[in-house]
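Hey all, quick one. A colleague (J.T.) asked me to put the phosphoric acid mono(formamide)ester job into the tracker so the inputs and the structure tokens live in one place instead of scattered across chat threads. No bug as far as I know, just bookkeeping. Sequence used:
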Amino acid sequence: MKHLLAIEQVSRAEIDAILDRAESFAEVGRRDIKKVPTLRGRTVVSLFYEASTRTSSSFELAAKRLSADLVSIKAAGSSVDKGESLKDTVATLSAYDPAAIVIRHPYAGAAQLVAEWSDAAVVNAGDGKHEHPSQALLDLFTLRRQLGSLDGKRIWIVGDVLHSRVARSNLIAFQEMGAKVTLCGPPALIPRGIEELGCAVSYSLDGLDEADVVYALRLQKERMKESFVPSIREYAGHFQIDSRRLGTRQLLMHPGPVNRGVELSGEVIDSPHSLIAEQVASGLVVRMAILYELLAIGGESPAPAEEDPGERPTPMGQPA
Ligand code: CP
């Protein structure tokens, strides 16, 4: 695997390999010293044109835990503010010979363009409404730990599917792993013809009790140029997941950030059903595994780093 641009380009075998690798990195994360020398001497560029807390922080920490050098650019406050184009920004950062560029951008297809302009491995950290493949992988990892196999499991993705790159990536990933997916939301927020991807569609929460997993989505007001719901209050009345609607055996997920009191009530966010904190923790080890897969396996393998005893407290400096 040279790049991670879209989950639809990742095979089931590649998904399993990344999740297995992430499990190894979770073991490293339980040590006192959580760093391995795998990417020492290599450079990772983190380039974010849209707001992020989870994805940016976890990719940056993942690069540091793998001992890479990290260059972190947020478009706001950079020369993008002076009008520098994406192409020129990538050319500028490519002068540092990065091994990987992690890019988030509002334009669907931006990560693909960066892959064409740069020799680096490119990770799509979210491109417009298109895809968010590392989110799908961390969600698969979270669910694998809870449920084992997803074969035959029922997952309802509820909310603003239309504007959600997470919904698209997760629909593909959940189905690839054998789950049966239902997309649920008001008609204006469900893309027409999405059933052709093999999922079911529901315009109400009737039937939610069949779900093993309820995956709620944020109303993405920043991507709405018109009014898609009559009011937030009415939307919440019909589609908010609260303790009345969530069954005792059901797991609750959300990619974050949550509009507390809109798509989720406060009580379910903080309930034992919620895997939201586990999703964030999974993000770190899965993103370590992605960088490992692209830079140590898929790309050119680096020369073995000299061991630093301070960073190798046990013989297992690199996960098997
Ligand atoms: N889930 C997700 O992408 O969160 P951030 O926008 O905080 O990165």
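Adding what we noticed when we looked at it: The chain is about 35% helix and 15% strand. The CA atoms of residues 111 and 124 lie 5 Å apart.
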